[in-house]
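Board notes, transcribed. Complex of a protein with 5-amino-5-deoxy-1-O-phosphono-D-mannitol.
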Amino acid sequence: MCGIIGYIGDKKASEVLITGLSRLEYRGYDSAGIALMKNKDIFIYKAEGKLNNLVEVLKDKKNICDSSHIGIGHIRWATHGLPTTVNAHPHTCNCKSLTLVHNGIIENYQELKEELEKYGCKFVSQTDTEVAAHLIAHEYGKYKNLLKAMQAAVKKIQGAFAFCAIHKNEPDKIVVAKRNAPLVIGLGENENFIASDIPAIIEYTKKAIYLNDYQVGVVEKNSIEIYDDDGHLIQNKIEHLPFEAMSISKMGYKHFMLKEIHEQGDVVRNIISGKFVGSDKIQLENFKLTNNEINNISRIQIIACGTSLHAGMVGKYIIEKYAKIPVDVEASSEYIYRDTIADKNTLVIGISQSGETADTITAIKQVKAKGSHIVIITNRADSTMARLADSLLPVNAGIEVSVAATKSYMAQVISLYLLAIYLSEEKDLKEYKDEIKKLKKELVELPNKIEQLLENSKNIKEIAKKYSSYKNFIFIARGINYPSALEGALKLKEISYINATGYGAGELKHGPIAMLDENMPVLAILNTGVVYDKVLSNCEEAKARQAKLIGVTNYLANKDKALFDDLIMIPTVSDILSPALNIIALQLLAYYIAEYLGKDVDQPRNLAKSVTVE
Ligand code: M6R
């Protein structure tokens, strides 16, 4: 997490840095800072809390801000040390000649710190980054050259980093380095840009160089030099950036989350557009396995985190049903520390909204080394994960600003439906032909149903208000909606800080039922289909313990309605496609509860949109 930015050129550096940081706020937002170079002096400004606080600090520094054309900046998601001003980046060495911003984690910072203390270095913050600043400055003492100092320092650092450093003695350059954290250099006319991610620079340039791991670069106003790990000067490819300068307007919605929830009909339309032509088999142009290789797939492993993991769990149901291939779904953070079994006949699907989640990247790298074919489903075709893909399935849900994933989840789930259909058709599993035909028709109708549900969401808002004072919730479902229960509970936790837990409804009586009383509402998802009666029985069990019951359903017999305190009706939908509608009801419920409680919906505490540390 954390976002870094750098600028060198003729513009006012402070303006480029602040604009860039505002585009990186999704990476963290607990403090921010910039360093501006002016006439061989470096001026550092920092503030605790949101970026606006830094903007306030800069109002008194107009003179420096208007006359500096080189600078680096940072927006933080704290890993080492509290989110205070002193721990905010940039960090410096004792003589304040060198200034550094950092994204990542330095794993051996304690050892390095002890070593540097022997040389008289004094530390003022609790961060690992300050250790790197002292280390590079220490190397500078030997080499008197910022590039060489950076090259020597990174060899001593273990962990993940993207660095931007400036030095008073070399006021015409920014030196950068990268290992397991993203860094892109944007190319301009008489100016260059550095950032953790494209949105920070896209309004200035469409051309960029991605720095690779173990590379170090020197960025000047009119030149960029990149060096490999052995110190050889090399050329990285210039790439055309895939974005238009993006509007990040809320389009009249109170929060980005609400806007993004309302975009889901169009997200589905975009993904399925052109996919179902007549009665032809579905085409997935970017899926690179041959028909023979598909028939040889012995198992599928889906690896992801958080909301993307829940999308993967929906994927398991559909792929196993229609493609008849066993699927395991696992949190990346667990996958990487196990002796996992995978080979060339294992298809591995990595799912990630950001494409930069450190745990998933590590897991993918591990399994790629075993020869498995890697499919990546991501909203960022320009991400690190996308570049690791053998087959890339970009979902193009559009930039998602709110930290809580909504439309990206929808996009992932719909892509998994398409993948399941594709695998089934490639394997020529005739017994599913009719069902798949119905599913395709339903997928085409889905955007309208999503919009119908969104238009009739007044009831959800009222229910949200009614239940907003409860401190705990249980979400239950079975079958293909079990992941919907997990995801609905996660949404509520993330943005309202209410303790919500999702369970398979059948598991309720194996322990969680002990917690039920009138203070523990139970939200049950029950759709017409094989598990309907079972979930209904589980609801009866909850009601018998005085729990308030909220039902999310597409059908309920009149005789059963009295069981529920409140009902959220979703449009008619088959059991197999119901996760795509149920989740919208749960996203809205979480949103309205958090909004009613006055929470910071788009930037909930302690979270970040892109989790780039393991
Ligand atoms: O970018 P990714 O999809 O890989 O991120 C995974 C999780 O960090 C993410 O889904 C997280 O759980 C979100 N805050 C969900 O709203």
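The mean pLDDT is 94. The pocket of 5-amino-5-deoxy-1-O-phosphono-D-mannitol is lined by residues 305-308, 352-354, 357, 360, 403-405, 494, 607, 610-611 (CB under 6 Å).
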